[in-house]
Amino acid sequence: MNRLLLNKIILVLSTLSALVGIGFLFWILVTLSYKGIMSISWDTFSKDLVEGGIRNLLIGQFTMALIATAVAVPVGMMAGIYLREYGVGSKFSAVIRNLSDVMMSAPSIVIGVFVFALMVAPVDTYNGWAGATALAIMMVPIIISTTDSMLALVPQELREAGIALGGSKHKIILQIVIRAAKVGIMTGVLLSFARIIGETAPLLFTSANNQFLTMDLNGQFPSLTVSIYNLATYPDAPSRELAWAASFILTVIVLFINLFGRFVVRKKK
Fold this sequence. Notes:
CATH class of the largest domain: Mainly Alpha
Strand content: under 5%
CATH topology of the largest domain: MetI-like fold
Helix content: over 70%
Number of strands: 0
Number of helices: 11
Structural class: mainly alpha
Number of domains: 2
Order of helices and strands: HHHHHHHHHHH
Largest sheet: none
Shape: globular
């Protein structure tokens, strides 16, 4: 009797906790959607920040994120392949896996400070290269973990079949193992991209912001997330309205990337 009563109490408390969490999330999304949609206009997409729009911010944010992806994907995938295919059971691979797990949980602001000391302080200026580097550092451990996990799901029989056909180690990995795990790896890449596209803290210390449209990564570079942070603190109403609009657009972008990743996995299944 006591067990049944305790089970019901825990069930009720768990349900209430879930409803409270969903309620706060729904409140945030409704408020963000209402104020964001009301603040969006054609000028939001057609003008730069200096003119009251976010065109340059979107271009700058995606530019840094794409550069980070171009660097992080091959590095993360090669590290994940090493952990699963070459370094199984070795102490070195265990150290790399543990460091990767630590990096995944490291605060993004710590990564920003590290890159600031490495790439900003020596040249005495914020720059887009530093911002892209900080985002790449955040992305690498996620891709390592995803690649490692997805390759572990590939049946060992596929590898043995490749060996039986006379395939070399690297050909078996590239033509059999990677192909079998490509959907899961691609999903991990998409989810890691969705994470870095919304990061603010590391860019505050690295790329800073630029009110004008520029593709010069050697100086301050436009950043959507940093601009949202800055605009939200300004006293004038137009700046705060632009911050709401930019926040809503960023939320939609992140939501779309996450839904697309889930769609890819579900379609494959």
